[in-house]
Structures are given as structure tokens and as C-alpha cells.
Design goal:
This protein is α+β, with helices and mostly antiparallel strands and 250 residues long. The protein has one domain: Metallo-beta-lactamase, Chain A (4-Layer Sandwich), CATH 3.60.15. The chain contains six helices and 16 strands. The strands form three sheets. The protein has a seven-stranded mixed sheet, with helices on one face. Strand 1 and strand 2 form a beta hairpin. The N and C termini lie far apart (39 Å). The structure holds fe (ii) ion (2 copies). The site of one fe (ii) ion has 5 residues, from loops. The site of one fe (ii) ion has 6 residues, from helix 2.
Length: 250
């Protein structure tokens, strides 16, 4: 029996997977499932490294129906690597992707999302937002209007300890660790060292003011519940200051 998905809101769940890192910590490469009126929508496709597990877990989470559509945050391989395999398994379901040139990015069949716009996918409305934290152009954050979950692609990740792969922010008694936030963003968002932390944090807080969240749902981290978001943002702000000033929080 595969591990059950973690329910975030009634119709959004998290299928958490992780890679071991050389230092003994782990990095999530997860997917999310949204139950829409006309079928199940997968957010990102996960890593090929977890392909067999994801097939089993998605099949279980959808009671054997599989997925009816997929929305990709961006086309980096750990996010899009299972697209062809899942289409062979579950049919030519619709794929929505933010891309400049779908064919060049290996997604010739994708329906293009426009950053700043919104789309109806299987009867559910998603907004596509320009992310203040991303490692590639043509990344979008995906805001699910019905659940108010913000799928944050490469932003809001952490590294975590063995045994914590299924933890959300609510499972960390002292909140998500600042070191985990710092180390992930320092390694992943390589331009952070050049950024003005105040401008970045203003952009993030403005985005959350405009799009109130129930959860922030990163691909490479633990989902952050609304009541834990201020704590995370304060730790992120200190982390970004540390990165931009060239020292670490250790
Ligand atoms: Fe990426
Ligand atoms: Fe990524």
C-alpha cells in the first residue's frame, strides 16, 4: 500500500516525495492533486526518479481514475519529467504550461497559460502569477481560486530531515527551521545574492495581500499553512538578507 496523500483542503492534497542529499538531508520533489468538477488535476509531474511510486500513489489517491489534466509550473526536468509516461498511462489529458515556445520546451501539445491571466481547467479557475522567487523565466505560480492554495514552484522550499518528508508547517513545533529555508533558497535561487531584500519581500507580501492563501504549496518544501506564513516570511527575509550580505545563518 502506498503512503496516503496529505490532505490540505478538502479537495487539494499533497503527494510528498524527496531525494536524499549528500549531506544527509532531503529535498522534496512533490506533486499536488486538485479534485476539480470534471476530474483530477495534477500540479507538476514530479521526478522520473519517483515515477513508479507516483504512479501508484496517484492511482490510489484518485480511486483508480488517474488524472484528467496537468498544470506545470515550469518545464525544469524535475517538474515535467513524467509527462510522457503519465500520458501513456492515463491518456492524452490536457497539459497547461507557461512557456514561451511549447515545442522548443518539449511540450508541443501544451495549452499555454499566460502570466497575469487565468484559465478554466476541468471546471476550476486557476490564476497564473509572476513569481517573485523563481529559478527560470516562464515559471508561474498557480493560484487555485476555489481552495486559495498557492502552488509556488521553486519558491518556499526547504531541506528536511529523514522522517519529515510528509510534514507540513503544522508538524514543526517551532515552525519551519530558518536554516532549512536559508540553505534551500541560497542553493536554488542563485540570483538572491544580488537582490534588495526589502523589494523582494514587498513583492511577496503584495502578492499574498492580493491573493489570500489557505496554504502555500511548494514543490521542494513543506506546505505552509496560512497561520504559519508570517513566521515563514520573517525567516525568509532574514535568510535573504544573509544571502545578499554574503554570510550564513549557521
Ligand atoms: Fe526550477
Ligand atoms: Fe525545481
Amino acid at each position: 500500500m502506498a503512503d496516503p496523500a496529505v490532505e490540505l483542503s478538502g479537495d487539494v492534497s499533497w503527494i510528498a516525495e524527496a531525494f536524499p542529499l549528500p549531506d544527509g538531508r532531503f529535498e522534496h520533489v512533490s506533486v499536488y492533486l486538485v479534485e476539480a468538477p470534471a476530474g483530477s488535476i495534477l500540479i507538476d509531474s514530479g521526478s522520473f526518479y519517483h515515477r513508479e511510486r507516483l504512479r501508484r500513489r496517484i492511482t490510489q489517491a484518485t480511486a483508480g481514475r488517474g488524472i484528467g489534466a496537468m498544470i506545470l509550473s515550469h518545464s525544469d526536468y524535475p517538474h515535467s519529467g513524467n509527462v510522457p509516461d503519465f500520458r501513456r498511462l492515463w491518456g492524452d489529458f490536457e497539459i497547461v504550461a507557461s512557456c514561451a515556445d511549447a515545442a522548443a520546451q518539449g511540450l508541443p501539445y501544451a495549452r499555454r497559460s499566460r502570466i497575469g491571466g487565468s484559465l478554466d481547467v476541468l471546471g476550476r479557475t486557476f490564476r497564473f502569477l509572476d513569481p517573485p522567487l523563481a529559478d527560470r523565466s516562464h515559471t508561474s505560480w498557480i493560484y487555485d481560486e476555489a481552495s486559495r492554495v498557492m502552488f509556488a514552484a521553486d519558491g518556499f522550499g526547504i531541506y528536511h530531515a529523514e522522517g519529515e518528508t510528509g510534514f507540513t508547517s503544522r508538524d514543526y513545533a517551532a515552525g519551519i527551521s530558518e536554516e532549512a529555508i536559508h540553505d534551500f533558497h541560497k542553493d536554488t535561487i542563485v540570483w538572491l545574492r544580488y537582490v534588495d531584500p526589502a523589494l523582494l519581500m514587498d513583492a511577496l507580501r503584495a502578492m499574498f495581500d492580493a491573493h489570500p492563501v489557505s496554504w502555500v504549496a511548494p514543490i521542494h518544501g513543506a506546505p505552509i499553512a496560512a497561520e504559519d506564513l508570517d513566521d515563514y516570511l520573517e525567516k525568509l527575509e532574514r535568510s535573504v538578507v544573509a544571502v545578499s550580505e554574503g554570510y550564513t545563518v549557521h
